[in-house]
């Protein structure tokens, strides 16, 4: 099965037409003579010629033993299952003595079959015709259509149980299909019926799903989209565990390159090909990056120089093979992340698989050709298909740090610096490191315990609903339900009931202390308004519906406190409180109440609510219109008039989520995503989000995080709590300290200007925003803006920058300010500038006269019309 030349190049033979090629190994039973059974390895391939081929090892997998031509369009993917058939021999007819591939004493060894080491009785093909078809193995007879898509299918994979299939493609979502196999009634012996049922559809990000892989224990599913987004779901519940953008290369949906990911045989790691040639290994459960196989850009000479197309971990987890757009295939040793062999090709390798039992790799390229690389691992190194326990006995170094029979693989298979783990048959990981056993950061409490929130990597998915100003419960009995510039609402969790307390930063603001509320409802949401507090609880099963309560600070009449119970199936998601109303968002509804408890409005939202905010008479709602796209939009209402003030998309920083939504002290809608604070100005360029504060400019240490609670644009201040722990939110005790930081629009100054001019530009920027937001009186804003402009004009005249001076003069609002600019030009003997400013002044005066004359004519016309009306009625 020679596949390499002396020059270190892979030798390919024709397999299919150019395009995406499916590749999978199938294992069947064979006869070894004298009644002994043996396993026979077959290679399944499919390509753009619409053919699916079953290839045997006798021809080095080059010649097809069986061809299937059932699809009407190109076959893009293949998968073969493994089912348990009891105890089977590990002897294979494809073993060879070349490069010491045949292990001594291997002929008589047996192993218990599981999903990873069982026999194949079904294989699936996916095609651009939208069908996923099932075939029996080894006779390759059509069994059933597992699924039908509207658009081309790009990837399929079987779960370890051999009866669950995952399929994805250009349609949105990955479908999980259950394949039931039963003996055919009334049929001949061996005949069976195969029926397929869609269990669920997992929501995906991006236009197309390029690859999908089950983990070896069947608990998780990983998929990569054409836009380079990696997603991981719990296969049992459908819950999304990870969404990570820019983790893989971006390939067009019709491209033959598919970003194939690979799981460690024990399920402890997920290998993901990177966009720059690297391969990242993510730890199971925490989904944090554990180590990376470096690219040439990272200093590894033998590393890839372009985006990776696929990665595959060897059957024993000691090695990994990767291919990239640089037309190279590299084999890595995972213990030290070093390359041990590499080969080049004439075309880009887009798919590869390790041989289940031999020291060999099978590969296909984007031309549809097939190659077998024999002996990618040197003969003096552990065999890639041998189990880790056998390698631990054979290798002296491995024996020193080896594992017991009941343990997972040794440290050599986990990468440098990785901790040893115990891996149960359920695939749950328990750290043996003493710090993590004692509950250190990132530790897993037990083999079957839940994953702590701190261990989860930050994800970028359709953002769930959150309450601005609230903090998560965590392990503490105290948490904030609301926290803003006025005060806070905190809750103390008790065994039978909770206690809700309202306090203010300025104690003198209230004549009396707000009494503590005994909470029997289990309030989890809260908002602090100018006159009272709104609280809400979630539904807690049958007989315990969601409840919303409003509690005023002061009341002149009895019964001012009120509650409202939502119908079964409707649950409060977010609350807000204004000067004359209280609001609550539920599934699809925005409910507005008066402060007396009467319903004012019920509005159907255009999507799922993300956050609510209120100030004065204004109410803002942020919502996700489409969970797949994840775009957050907003609507701002004036509640007393029942009018829509503004609406549109929200702006968020890359890889960030909305952390706070609120209003400034002067009534400007603002948002904070952990990196940038933005204000919405309806009069600025037709309605724009303007950056007012950036964390990167204010951060003094990498560990600092700004928990924003409010801002004042007219005073140019943002109010926040600075935290330096991984928990980016304040604790109830000790009471957090509010820090005031200056608002700074990220302007870029002219190189010819000094620091004083840059500061004046900041002031000018905020004066413009003041005029647009009407935060202060127009006349006052005009005066302040003109003062700054005149200072800038004076500096430009001194620096002989006359064009800039004229530009600033054209922005002056008041006529007397323009006259002052003219005096500065004349006094500095800048004749040309003075003439142009004089022209501006004359034009401004003529415009003012024309406007005044039009107003006078309109006033006279109104008087005459009124006289005619009066005369006609007499």
TrEMBL record:
Matching SUPFAM superfamilies: WD40 repeat-like (SSF50978)
Matches recorded under InterPro entries: WD40/YVTN_repeat-like_dom_sf (IPR015943), WD40_repeat_dom_sf (IPR036322), WD40_rpt (IPR001680), WD40_WDHD1_1st (IPR057646), WDHD1/CFT4_beta-prop_2nd (IPR022100), WDHD1/CFT4_hel (IPR048591)
Region annotation Disordered: where it falls in the sequence: 93-117, 372-476
Domain of life: Eukaryota
Keyword Protein biosynthesis: no
Gene Ontology annotations for the cellular component aspect, listed alphabetically: nuclear replication fork
Ranges: WD repeats: 301-342
Positions with biased composition (Basic and acidic residues): 99-115
Stretches assigned to the WDHD1 first WD40 domain: 121-371
Record keywords: Nucleus, Repeat, WD repeat
Alphabetical GO biological process terms: DNA repair; DNA-templated DNA replication; mitotic cell cycle
Subcellular location: Nucleus
Pfam families: Ctf4_C, Mcl1_mid, WD40_WDHD1_1st
WDHD1/CFT4 helical bundle domain ranges (all copies): 778-844
Domain spans labelled WDHD1/CFT4 second beta-propeller: 465-747
UniProt name for this protein: Minichromosome loss protein
Organism, scientific name: Chloropicon roscoffensis
Organism placement in taxonomy: Eukaryota, Viridiplantae, Chlorophyta, Chloropicophyceae, Chloropicales
